[in-house]
Amino acid sequence: xxxxxxxxxxxFIVIFASCFITKGHGRSLIIDSQRGKFDLIPNxxxxxxxxxxxxxIRTLFKIYGTDxxxxxxxxxxxxxxxxxxxxxxxxxxxxxxxIEVKWQHPSxxxxxxxxxxxxxxxxxxxLQTISQLDTLQCEALQIRxxxxxxxxQLTYLAEAIKNTCxxxxxxxxxxxxxxxxxxxxxxxxxxxxxSNIIIHSASKEDEYEVIKxxxxxxxxxxxxxxxxxxxxxxxxYFNAIKDHYMEANFHNSCLNRKLSIDGNGEIKxxxxxxxxxxxxxxxxxxxxxxxxDFTAIWNIKKDFVLTCQDCxxxxxxxxxxxxxxxxxxxYAKPLKCGYDxxxxxWSDWKENPLKQKAISExxxxxxxxxxx
Amino acid sequence: xxxxxxNADDYSTTQVLKWLVHFNKKFLRLNNSTLxxxxxxxDDTISFVYGNQKVILSDVSKYWYRRxxxxxxxxxxxxxxxDKKLNTYLNFFNxxxxxxxxxxxxKSLFSKSLNSYQTSSNINKLDVLKSCKELGIKTPETLVTNxxxxxxxxxxxxxxxITKAVNNLDPNIKGNVFADLMTxxxxxxxxxxxxxxxxxxxxxxxxxxEFEIRSFFLVDTFYSMAIFSQNDEKxxxxxxxxxxxxxxxxxxxxxxxxLASKLRELLKIYKLNSASLDIIYTTDxxxxxxxxxPIGQYDMxxxxxxxxxxxxxxNHLAS
Lengths: 372, 319
Description:
The structure holds 2 protein chains of 2 kinds.
Chain A: H1 2-6, E1 12-15, E2 19-23, E3 28-32, E4 37-41, H2 43-52, H3 57-64, H4 69-81, E5 85-88, H5 90-93, E6 111-116, H6 119-135, E7 140-145, H7 151-159, E8 168-174, H8 181-190, E9 194-200, E10 206-210, E11 215-219, H9 242-248, E12 258-261, E13 267-268, H10 285-289, H11 292-296, E14 339-340, E15 345-346, H12 356-361
Parallel strand pairs in A: 6-7, 6-12, 7-8, 8-9, 9-11
Antiparallel strand pairs in A: 1-5, 2-3, 3-4, 10-11, 12-13, 14-15
Chain B: E1 2-5, H1 11-22, E2 27-30, E3 37-42, E4 45-50, E5 53-56, E6 62-65, H2 84-109, E7 113-114, H3 117-121, H4 125-135, E8 142-147, H5 148-158, E9 161-164, E10 172-174, E11 177-178, E12 184-186, E13 197-205, E14 209-218, E15 221-228, H6 233-236, H7 242-245, E16 249-253, H8 257-269, E17 274-282, E18 287-293, H9 299-305, H10 309-318
């Protein structure tokens, strides 16, 4: 029915500027950055979209010929039905410029991770760290506790961010039966900036929404024992929202403007990485930012990463520089990614014979499914 | 120093201030309900104390009126006056004085201003429509009336019409009671319920839209966005109109240069160097101007189009 209407149309098909196409080796991704969704498309369709900028729909049908009529029809209906594009006459379509691909942020640090192994160790550096993150205009903080935290310890951690720039706090803590749902609920109501609390190592999988705060309490049976749990690249972690897409075009999609403090108080790009830039006890966070090694990694975007640079998911994916296939190569593919953009197949990264050397080097042999 | 007048909960102000921090610029943010102590207007010098800080207006490098009321006097001071009539009179009197003082204060900042309370709070929609006519900016057919008879003629001519607020009042009536100032459709059937004479209201013929345009004007540039707002049932069955069905699709748009220059003239008349403009692109391929909003939520244009208007505003204030 679509073709009957469109075959003789003198209109053009215009892809909405908020929809971006990432061409991969074997296929491509069309990303709806406004609605945060994406679809896989054949590379031939990318060429078709290029042609559609030059020709009316009537001409497109002519160029592709009767043999390809059905393909053209299917492309058009795919674009229109998924609202990736719209029809416009020649005059008005020129009024729709592309979205400028750029990413800017006023904060020197946008997000931070603080790991907790021994509460007292974290407590010793916590307040001064928060105050420095505030100076850096940090917006999001994740506290990952491998141990059980008590209600008063959680309150202490949450209260400290109250009058700071930090707008979102996410807390991971180990299950213990003293920390009742009632106590957690109270904690969330008293601390509006907490967006999520994730209780790991629990006996159940459950989630509770605290509607007044728009926040959630998650229970999961997964365990969180140490930093090696991180760095998994999987479809479920893909993010097609505009800000992420834009940032990934220029920066590392995990580490850009991130500052982490591991369980020992060591300042790092990410707690899973070995290199420390000093202990938060006696090192100023601002001074760490002047270290070029610390910030250089922010600019390792996917276009520079081997294999990833040919992948259609490169701008929706989260990167990992802590665990890579060839540990001494800064530009190697993330180890914990099971996708091959040359065959377009997903497989279990842990089973990949080519990755075994790196897996043992990182001592990851016992790794199970992970939380983040 | 950069002086900013806003509300405590205005998100956009906070975002711009983060950029000013980033640029290492000194600024002072005044929110509603924060009082100016020790106000002095003496010859050419105007100063006040805010918190512990003395602000001399000649030291202000840029002034941004984002939103909110200026409070110069404490209304609390009048509370102890028991006599109701005297209290009402003094309140009224204070308001009048306050208006003059703020006008003087803003006048001294005018050349450094990005908008002002004076220009933003006194937009007369009827004047604007008249100016549009003079400048050749197309608008929907408009009728302002309190007469049922006149309205009836208008509906008969245009079939479907809308009514909207004559001016952009604060919709907050009291506490959490809000006036509904939304645009409403009116048909011939609605008229039966109306008395012969009613409150003065504004009516316009309903314009069939292909898409809507929200344009944010900053100093000299229009940052525009097309909004593909949801259409009615009939377009669903006709694929050729599919583009209009896409709900909420918001993408960058470029205004035609001739329209942009006319709109610049319009903004000049009302001394606005920043404002949001509502325009409709009709199914007849025409641009119809709806209204100016000096205090628009520009973030709803900035975010989807990746315009980074916070940075643009901060850059302007820092320059």
